[in-house]
Specification:
five-stranded parallel beta sheet, alpha/beta, Rossmann fold, single chain, 2 domains
Length: 209
């Protein structure tokens, strides 16, 4: 089994590599510290398992999930993130992830989750599984109403990126970005980018620069 670990924290990558080395059928493990570096590995090599963080220094890890979906890359993926499950799990699953777990979980649970996805299964924390089973819950957060693409546009806007910069990053027309921005503001019942930034910081969707 070939494995790719995409995380910008060296210590975490090394810990995950040690864990993956213990799998009986592991052949190769590569590491990447950014979205662009991760995409370079995916374009050159075939992987059976991707362990992915979403908050990376250059772009959101959702970009990698979108790449896998767009190009129909057959690679089981588990998202391992500092963000609690309720923040990004819906978007990750909609883009094809097989598992999602917070880095705040204990070691045994993280190990179990990764091995379950590696063996072809799916992993959803029990609390989040209940939310899926019962559909839209009363605790639904405003950003949960967004599609995966709308969420990425929202995060870029919250980080202060311009329409032109977002257009370049997502490879879509500026007019399309503006349309997404209007949808985001409407769905989240907000008036401007500043409100998006405050919301994203308060909910730990982005970090202070």
């Amino acid at each position: 089994m070939n494995i790719l670990i995409v995380d910008d924290h060296v210590v975490i990558r090394k810990g995950l590599k040690t864990l993956a080395d213990g799998f009986a059928n592991t052949k190769q493990i590569d590491e990447a510290g950014s979205v662009e570096e991760g995409l370079q590995f995916l374009r050159k090599n075939k992987y059976d398992l991707l362990i992915l963080d979403l908050h990376l220094p250059d772009k959101s890890g959702l970009e990698i999930l979108q790449y896998l979906k767009d190009f129909k890359v057959d690679c089981r993926t588990i998202v391992l993130s500092f963000h609690p499950e309720e923040h990004f799990a819906s978007q990750a699953f909609s883009l094809g992830a097989s598992g999602y777990i917070s880095k705040g979980a204990n070691y045994d649970e993280i190990s179990y989750a990764i091995q379950k996805v590696a063996s072809g299964g799916k992993y959803v924390p029990e609390v989040y599984a209940e939310k899926i089973a019962f559909g839209k819950s009363a605790s639904l957060l405003p950003h949960d109403r967004l599609s995966a693409r709308e969420l990425r546009v929202m995060l870029y806007l919250a980080e202060g990126k311009t329409i032109s910069e977002i257009s370049s990053a997502l490879h879509i027309a500026e007019k399309t970005v503006s349309t997404y921005r209007s949808r985001v503001l409407e769905k989240m019942d907000m008036k401007n980018n500043a409100e998006l930034t405050i919301y994203a910081l308060n909910n730990k969707l982005i970090q202070y620069q």
